[in-house]
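Posting for a labmate who doesn't have an account.
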Amino acid sequence: MDLVSDLTCHRCAGELVCAARVPHSFARADGHRVTGSRTVGLCPRCDRDSPAAAAVIAYFTAHGTARADTVGDLAVALRAWLTQSTVE
């Protein structure tokens, strides 16, 4: 997970709750596979209708930051959000 204090939402320019760098790949027209990574940001305004994002937003709203006693809950929520984000 990257710190996001210097990142803003690419859709609304608002503040992000968190961001993650995720791998991605695609095939060019000539068949060559290109791999890399992209940063996926979670915006409380733009992503609020996504159930997977809502769980992460709720976690950070309640706790402010990742906490050792609840990191398992955060991990489950992040996995669901990232799984959804990498499919879109």
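Reply:
Got it, the structure tokens are right above this. The mean pLDDT is 88.
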